[in-house]
Write a structure and sequence with these properties.
The complex is a heterodimer of chains A (186) and B (272). Chain A is an alpha+beta fold. Chain A has one domain. Helix content of chain A is 25%, strand content 34%. Chain A has 3 helices and 8 strands; from the N terminus they run ααββββαββββ. Chain A has an 8-stranded antiparallel β-sheet, with helices on one face. The longest helix of chain A is centred in the middle third of the chain and has 20 residues. Chain A starts with a helix and ends with a strand. Among the domains of chain B are: 69 residues; 110 residues, Sandwich (Immunoglobulin-like). In chain B, the strands form 2 sheets. Chain B has a 4-stranded mixed β-sheet. Chain B has a 4-stranded antiparallel β-sheet with strand order 3-2-5-6, with no helix packed on it. In chain B, helix 5 runs antiparallel to helix 6. The chains are: A alpha+beta (186), B alpha+beta (272). The interface between A and B is medium-sized, with 40 and 30 residues.
């Protein structure tokens, strides 16, 4: 009797602490593209010439490539500044000007969503890294020109896996073709 | 060169600079009331710490990422294409509506000419003609109503997120010269026109602002300025701007009391 109560309590505690489990009232996780329309609407109200330049998860990415919060960064030539929007639960949680200069090439409209990018990266190396080093995916970012020297025009998802005591794993996915194009540790 | 700038020269220069120029008065007269005068004041930007940490990786690794981007060269190519594009059918409909309105206007004008020529009904036949004309006018009105409905439907279907600020409640009081909306480092000063101030004083309502805004919760610091208004007092007014809707913010100054910290400002928000 005591053993079963103890086991139930342990299970409850484990479930409460497990990441990615939804509780009543928790905002729904979503893919990066799902929040784009709202972020773009806001950016166009800020500056008509605003263009998307960068996307990053603001909360942990779940196994299916969704996150409860994503951050979107836009740049306006006219304003001469970048402005970020962090979205959660179908709303803009906060908007703020970026406090430093940052102007990568604008992202084109065609790019695979975060769920597909995660699947591709996991299959290639992410799963193995996480299993062998008890690592986890800490960052997903969408950027053009910074991480793929061979084809700087390409828009890429960069997935960063980290593990304590081991060098991090970077997986670069071509966001147009949906293929892993580069990996490195460090 | 140095010898030419004698103390006398300097004094003469200062005198000339300080003296009113002959065209000065005329220049002042030329300044029309209501023209926008832009001034620039340099202040240190206040970076409010974010409540919710965002774009953490970018912030932590900005030096590395920017160094990578510095190695890029952007080449912009413009290609002119002769590909035909589908016309928006609404534009075609607008053209048809414009023609229909012109035709209706002609019909109404012809009817007016006929009516002015007719002083007295000569026979029952003319009464029937008049009835027919009235029926035609009703048809024209119904068509016009239909066109307005189509236009309204089109307009409301494409509403973007916008904020409209309305002021009321200044009956018998001097309205402020301007109202300032501040959010983070952005300041919008809305100068009230003489007509708006007169309207407010006589119990009217004035729409003072209508702009596109970001679809999110805005927290504005609203302050007033004018002869009898304290610009230092700023009030916090939160407004949730709903996406693709018109958000109306009404500032009701009926219970205004400048001695009270909150100024007695009452606000209400509604959406359309």
């Amino acid at each position: 009797m005591f053993r079963s109560i103890f086991a139930t309590a342990i299970l409850c505690l484990a479930l409460m602490g497990a990441p990615g489990l939804l509780h009543a009232g928790d905002p729904m996780p979503f893919t990066a593209r799902a929040g784009l329309a709202l972020a773009r609407d806001a950016a166009r109200a800020w500056a008509e010439d605003a263009r998307l330049i960068y996307v990053e998860n603001d909360e942990e990415v779940a196994a299916d490539g969704t996150a409860v919060r994503w951050g979107y960064l836009f740049h306006s030539q006219r304003v001469g500044q970048a402005r970020g929007y962090t979205l959660r639960g179908g709303k803009i949680l906060e908007a703020s000007d970026l406090e430093f200069e940052f102007e990568p090439p604008p992202l084109p409209g065609e790019w695979i969503d975060s769920d597909r990018a995660r699947v591709v990266a996991e299959k290639k190396a992410g799963q193995k890294y996480a299993r062998e080093h008890r690592g986890r995916l800490s960052t997903m970012m969408l950027i053009r020109g910074a991480f793929y020297e061979d084809k700087p025009d390409a828009t890429t998802w960069v997935l960063l896996y980290t593990s304590s005591g081991h060098p991090a794993l970077h997986v670069v996915v071509d966001a147009a073709r949906g293929k892993v194009v580069k990996m490195w540790r460090g | 060169m140095r010898s030419s700038m004698t103390p006398m020269t300097i004094w003469l220069s200062l005198f000339l600079l300080s003296a009113p120029s002959p065209g000065g008065a005329a220049g002042e007269r030329d300044t029309e009331p209501g023209t926008v005068v832009e001034t620039t004041e340099v202040k240190r930007a206040k970076h409010k710490p974010a409540k919710h940490e965002s774009l953490r990786f970018l912030r932590d690794n900005r030096v590395f990422i920017r160094a990578q981007l510095d190695r890029l060269r952007l080449q912009t190519t413009l290609v002119r294409t002769d590909d035909a594009q589908l016309l928006d059918e609404r534009y075609l409909r607008l053209k048809e509506m414009s023609h229909a309105i012109a035709a209706a206007r002609d019909t109404v004008r012809a009817g007016q000419v006929l009516a002015s020529e007719r002083e007295l009904l000569a026979s029952v036949t003319e009464l029937a003609e008049l009835e027919a004309e009235l029926a035609l006018m009703e048809t024209i009105l119904a068509d016009q109503r239909q066109r307005l409905l189509l236009l309204e439907e089109d307009f409301l279907g494409h509403q973007e997120t916008a904020l409209v600020v309305i002021v009321k409640g200044l009956t018998g009081k001097d309205a402020p010269e301007s109202i300032v909306f501040a959010e983070d480092n952005n300041f919008v000063r809305v100068n009230l026109t003489a007509e708006q101030r007169a309207s407010l004083k006589s119990g009217g309502i004035a729409q003072i602002y209508h702009e596109f805004v970001e679809p999110r919760e805005h927290i504005y610091q609203v302050s007033f300025s004018g002869e009898t208004w304290s610009e230092a007092t700023a009030l916090t007014v939160p407004v949730e701007a709903v996406r693709n809707r018109l958000t109306f913010l009404e500032l009701d100054l009926t219970r205004l009391d400048r001695k009270v910290d909150t100024l007695g400002l009452e606000t209400s928000v509604w959406y359309r």
